[in-house]
Amino acid sequence: MQAYIGLGSNLDNPMAQLNRAIKTLKKHDRLNAFRVSSIYGSKPVGPQDQPDYINAVASFETDLTPIALLDILQSIEQAQRRVRERHWGPRTLDLDLLLYGSEKIQLPRLTVPHTHMLERGFVIKPLNDLAPKMRLENGKTVTEQLHQLDTSDLVLIKEE
């Protein structure tokens, strides 16, 4: 199954946090054909009294179930001492399962496609790097969705 995850950080050397997470994900033997978008800087969603974020999207093929994949993502967050002080607050590492093939998942621990992803330029812009022609749940391509969003606060930090 083709999966897409969002990566984000704004605490404790965010670039090192993302690079460490990407390196860990690339080494996992059940995640294949791993690709990562460019890395973008953005203003935080929610409380503005926190540092700006850096974000990327990664894609890979996997035979893991969505919950098994979520468990791996959360274990990586914990290994990197994830800090989450408040809702939409600063964090050392955030790994979100955005898409799992075309599946729609509604479980207590997991909602896929990820809630609010269509509204978030910091998700759609890096997703556009990887899959511009992919159709989203609203019927638009990623590129078409990107054109609907204000991405003026996004800054290219690093091209992969």
Question: Can you give a write-up of this model?
Answer:
This is 2-amino-4-hydroxy-6-hydroxymethyldihydropteridine pyrophosphokinase. Pathway: Cofactor biosynthesis; tetrahydrofolate biosynthesis; 2-amino-4-hydroxy-6-hydroxymethyl-7,8-dihydropteridine diphosphate from 7,8-dihydroneopterin triphosphate: step 4/4. Catalyzes the transfer of pyrophosphate from adenosine triphosphate (ATP) to 6-hydroxymethyl-7,8-dihydropterin, an enzymatic step in folate biosynthesis pathway. Belongs to the HPPK family. It is a single chain. This protein is of the alpha+beta class and 160 residues long. The protein has one domain: 7,8-Dihydro-6-hydroxymethylpterin-pyrophosphokinase HPPK (Alpha-Beta Plaits). 28% of the residues lie in helices and 27% in strands. The chain is built from 4 helices and 8 strands. It has helices at 14-27, 66-79, 121-130, 142-147, and strands at 2-9, 31-36, 39-42, 53-62, 94-100, 105-106, 111-112, 155-158. Strands 1, 2, 3, 4, 5 and 8 form a 6-stranded antiparallel sheet that branches. It has a two-stranded antiparallel ribbon with strand order 6-7. A hairpin with a 4-residue loop joins strand 6 (105-106) and strand 7. It starts with a strand and ends with a strand. The mean pLDDT is 93.
